[in-house]
Amino acid sequence: MKTNPPIFQHVVDWVRKLNSRASFSDVEVIVEGPRDEAALEDIGVHATFTHASRLIREIRDLGEARVIGRTFIILTDFDTEGSDLHDRLKRIITEMGGKVDEFPRSYYRSIGLPPLVEEVSGFLKRRVVDWSILIEGWRSE
User: How far is residue 127's CA from residue 137's CA, in Å, rounded to a whole number?
Assistant: First the structure.
């Protein structure tokens, strides 16, 4: 029988804090692609998701108007490519007057979640008893 490891409370806390921060209309969560978005939604994250390539394209087309007055939570992967993309996006966003909320990214990493965001759902389902039942309550909130 599986038991709930200590990571359980940290992940619940992370998802709740991320949902709280992402609940404002001027906040977007930036991910690399649809699998990352699906994995985060699968663990109970509610947010306005934007894929990194789309954001870059929109910034190229619209300039600073795309980011001014907005806050971005960048949840790209923690491999070399994802970290480089995070740094690039953060630089572009802040130089153009947008804000980047680093807390969810640093907290994600500190609690030992997988370096590839698309793996987070499977990671939790293998380690936490009844994770899917727990998040059903969040979906109705």
Answer: 19
Strand partners, 28: 72
- Where would I find the H helices in 1-141? 7-21, 34-42, 52-62, 80-95, 103-110, 120-127, 131-139
- pLDDT tens per residue, range 59-104: 999 999 999 999 999 999 999 999 999 999 999 999 999 999 999 9
Nearest to 74 by CA among 122, 112, 36: 36
Spatial CA neighbour of 75 closest among 98, 42, 93, 50: 50
- Reduced to 3 states (helix: H, G, I; strand: E, B; else coil), residue 50 is strand
Structural domains in the chain, sorted by start: 7-132 (3.40.1360.10)
Q: What is the pLDDT of residues 121-137, one digit of tens each?
A: 999 888 776 666 666 65
